[in-house]
């Protein structure tokens, strides 16, 4: 197997747009447990919007495969300001429902308050193509994002780890669990399919930089 150190990791640019879009549509949305559970299928416009927002903040990373020269993994990040009130009304009900879940895991604790921060790095989406898994790329992309967040003088970073596999990657980079949400307790009717130790909950994770 090719060592993960051979992957070319760099800041995402406009030139990466189409490959990042393809990875979101053909890997992330198909593999993500929540989107599979609620059968989210109409994802093109949502994916394009995510990419444009992350390109604007210029703090996301892509990893190119050393042989194929194609993007094998992405870490889409954004800068979120305290008291940010994002309007998600333009999206369909299923996308809004996902945002509601992610928002619910923040209800009990404010990372902004606990870190005394006006803005934080939000590690939004991590996706590794199936052909490139097993190289530790998710953890390496998180590490690169943390390193860059320090260069941007961010006080801290946070993420919503939507399963245990993702959580382990964040823990490798010294993130702590601030809260968790059990999917079936949040909405037994729609999320009952998310069960078992790996996929049954979402974790709010964060660390100071």
Automatic annotation (TrEMBL):
Under catalytic activity, the entry for this protein gives: serotonin + octadecanoyl-CoA = N-octadecanoyl-serotonin + CoA + H(+); serotonin + (9Z)-octadecenoyl-CoA = N-(9Z-octadecenoyl)-serotonin + CoA + H(+); serotonin + acetyl-CoA = N-acetylserotonin + CoA + H(+); dopamine + hexadecanoyl-CoA = N-hexadecanoyl-dopamine + CoA + H(+)
Q: What is the name of the protein in this document?
A: aralkylamine N-acetyltransferase
Q: Which domain of life is it from?
A: Eukaryota
| Enzyme Commission no | 2.3.1.87
Q: What class of enzyme is it?
A: transferase
Gene3D superfamilies named among the record's database cross-references: 3.40.630.30
PROSITE patterns linked to this entry: GNAT (PS51186)
Membrane spanning stretches: none
The N-acetyltransferase domain sits at 7-209
UniProt keyword Membrane, yes or no: no
The protein's GO terms of the molecular function aspect are:
aralkylamine N-acetyltransferase activity
Q: Which family does it belong to?
A: Belongs to the acetyltransferase family. AANAT subfamily.
The UniProt entry, under PANTHER family, shows: AT07410P-RELATED, N-ACETYLTRANSFERASE-RELATED
Keyword line: Transferase
